[in-house]
Amino acid sequence: xxxxxxxxxxxxxxxxxxxxxxxxxxxxxxxxxxxxxxxxxxxxxxxxxxxxxxxxxxxxxxxxxxxxxxxxxxxxxxxxxxxxxxxxxxxxxxxxxxxxxxxxxxxxxxxxxxxxxxxxx
Length: 121
Known about the structure:
Blueprint: H1 14-33, H2 39-46, H3 50-77, H4 80-99, H5 104-114
């Protein structure tokens, strides 16, 4: 019996895809979970109480869950590549705007709403 060399169905890129998916998950979920690291700093910087500061993380999670069907619609209508790029662009814009904000209300929009839409891809 001769042993034939079987080439992988994925062309040998399977582990690259697994590694990339892992990094995407780390980047997307870690950003929203790291808000709690800055929680006390946000309170001190903006002079806000616990409940006002907690809205940031709440808005991120709420926006993520409420806008997930929109991401699915974009993926089905155009392509998942478009959905991923749009989600990455919105998230990047949200994080960039968050770094320049001077008020907690602006942080609600930039970090809470824009960055929360990154999971829609």
